[in-house]
Predict the 3D structure of the following.
Amino acid sequence: MKFTEKTFRPSAVIFDMDGLMFDTENLTIPIWEVAGRPFGYNITYDIVLRMVGISAEKARLVMLEEFGEDFPYDTIRDEFRRLVQVEVDKNGVPLKPGLMFLLDRLAAAKIPFGVATSSRNATAVNMLSKAGIIDRFAAITCGDEVKNGKPAPDIFLLATQKLKTPPSACVGFEDSPPGLLGLHSAGIRSIFIKDVIAPSEEVLATVWQRCNDLTEAARLLEV
């Protein structure tokens, strides 16, 4: 489905979490290297980029492909999560520019919004709570609630069900190629906000609109 209008007033909005609402990719990508070092693995920036926006199980496959079947993924992932928690407890969750402005505008316009993240529910609830915004969302949909992660449309379709809004009446915000492709497959207008990955032209061809930040996006949503 191709959407051609320049602006649109949605009935509901869906937000990705990491790299979109929170500046967590820049925070967490180096932590993978720190987590892997005591176990003798050099988990470089380029390797971690291949895991951005995908489910934990797909991330596991990326690591096993890179380091072999003996790679202790669960052990290093748990150490990674511990180190991230230490950082968040110490310094808080870094918000992306314009997030609070857009959430305030949507709330004032009485447009409900939800989260659709590849992260597990426990992780998402922790991060949203630490950021002090969890109560603002009408629905939270996480990677451990669906069989097929992004770029499959499953998580976005479940999010629209929770928001009680058809996909064509929603807008979704994403920063990663898997997320953008998932929105397209779900029949949801997508707004791309660039973070650490520049999608291919093929992926960008599926995008409804591109914005520099979330403040700019408010104008597209007529709120």
Observations:
- Residues 12-24+94-220 form a domain with the Rossmann fold fold (CATH 3.40.50.1000).
